[in-house]
């Protein structure tokens, strides 16, 4: 399996290889950010790393999702290579839109896993209010940021804060690429694809 392929992080060798890249210059400040957040929140909060295959602090596009799933916590990364169908959908949709992943970075409005050992739950207002507190620090690290895509209604709760922090950003809202949405009705996948095409056009300009 190629390392940049849907679900490649189900391979333990690939997870180890990805971990070995966490101190590369483009991602090291984000790795340090995760360590600070883990120290602040404590060991009960499962907070995955940024994926070093993405653009790190040089990214022009921030994908902001709701919360990491169980597979993301197990793999250790917020990644389109995670071994779940949501990540696979997102990988393929980005590829179809022609968005170079080196231009992107992915994070969650609630940066830690919320749920039980087997099932994630929906983020509450309390989860979002707590999780969003670290967003201003993150955005301060992303000096090249030009666009942000709020993926899912819960992530869009952060839009007012982002508008205050970086009012010059192009902001987009997309449905979530989970199988529950994508497979629920004909045309749902196309709705996400249309947003990503807009993002690609905005960055190209």
Highest-level CATH class: Alpha Beta
> How does the major sheet shape up?
4 strands, parallel
Q: Distance between termini?
A: 35 Å
Give, in spatial order, the strands making up the sheet with the most strands.
Answer: 4-2-5-6
* Name of the CATH homologous superfamily: Uracil-DNA glycosylase-like domain
Q: Helix share of residues? A: 40-55%
DSSP strand (E) fraction? Answer: 5-15%
Tally of separate helices:
9
- Note poorly predicted spans: none
Structure description:
The structure is a single chain. By secondary structure, this protein is of the alpha/beta class. It has one domain (8-204): Uracil-DNA Glycosylase, subunit E (3-Layer(aba) Sandwich), CATH 3.40.470.10. It has helices spanning 12-19, 28-41, 70-75, 85-97, 125-131, 135-141, 159-165, 179-182, 188-204, and strands at 49-50, 61-65, 77-78, 104-108, 147-151, 170-174. It has a four-stranded parallel beta sheet with strand order 4-2-5-6, with helices on one face. Strands 1-3 form a two-stranded parallel ribbon. Strand 5 (147-151), helix 7 (159-165) and strand 6 form a beta-alpha-beta unit. The longest helix has 17 residues, at 188-204. The radius of gyration is 16 Å and the shape is globular.
